[in-house]
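U., I forgot to send this yesterday:
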Amino acid sequence: MQSGPGGAMSRKSDFVALIRQLRENVPDISGVLIGSVDGLAIATDFPEQEAARIAAMGASSVGLGNRIADTSELGGFGQMMIEGRQELLIIYLAGPGAILALRAPVRANLGLIRLEGAKAAKRTAELVAG
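Result:
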């Protein structure tokens, strides 16, 4: 955590800037959420109710992904993708305390999303660590 006056507000603006930059770099992305591994939304551009569901389900998914990766000896969990008929959701573990969830249409440039998503997850982990 940042300390000092305005630390929490500064961090919130850093998260908002990260979301804005990610959306600029990958126009196909239709939603971004930074959440805690406890299932709470930290920063997002999803509607409020949808954000709460994605944060909770994303945290649960990361927990399950961690168990699968450990049990299958995959070398640790990094990300998972849920592909629906129309859209997909990619969930990244962003350090030990956060997740990053990205939504995009299935026709989106998945390579670019994964490249920029991995960078954003790393930056999210740095911001959460303070």
